[in-house]
Amino acid sequence: MRVPRRLLLGLAVVAVPLLLALLGPLFAGDPGPRAVSFTLGGGHWLGTDFVGRDVWQQVLHGGRTVVLTALAATALAYLVALPVGLAAAVTRARWLEELLMRPLDVLLAVPSLLLILLVASVFSPGAAGLALLVALVNVPDAARIVRAAAAEAAARPAVEALRMQGESWWRVAVGYVGRSALRTLAADAGIRLTGVLYLVSTAAFLGVGVAPDAADWAVMVDRNRTGLFIQPWAVVVPALLIVALTTGTNLLFDAALDKKGRRP
User: Fold this and answer.
1) Is the pTM of this model over 0.85?
2) pLDDT of 102-153, one tens digit each?
């Protein structure tokens, strides 16, 4: 079978940041002596950062937090949003639907980054806490998408027929309604992961969830931007890796949806 060109392109784009994020710390080695800030050469492939650390070594260490936090936050958001959205779409009890969806509307009215900053001003979340916060602010929107995608399938005569046959809630909600909405949810997952990556990077850029001098791609962009015109690699390389991760993810989801939507 021919592999779609978009799939190959997506794999090529996303492979570089993913491999650096997951395997980079294994090959980074011990930190060497610090040099002069924002210099090029001197045995440093990509120069030095704002405190004289080797930029290449910081890049190897800096992706794991961003990638794992974003993936964990997306998975946690859907872990809550899927059952809530499916239950609201399948149920015939209006009060239950209101009970499930209205509290989420209140949370949806608060800007995501503002809520994260408000919580971070009271507590000091680490990487796990940041993943939970990002997942929390994504649950209302994800649950509404799940409910909207599943509502049309839940209104079909086939669902009523399954109920009359005595099928279980799992068989109706997941086996039929969930599968019918899978294409829409897959598209939303690609977009949502991109948004989560942006939110995690922005929070890290503002110092939430990571130390101010941590080896983190988003923190590198923030801390080294003062030397952008002196030593650009300390900003350009981590920024390009974040862009490649989001772009490659969307290309992969688009390719998967195109392949699924093709008919023989």
Assistant:
1) no
2) 888 888 888 888 888 888 878 777 778 888 999 999 999 999 998 888 888 8
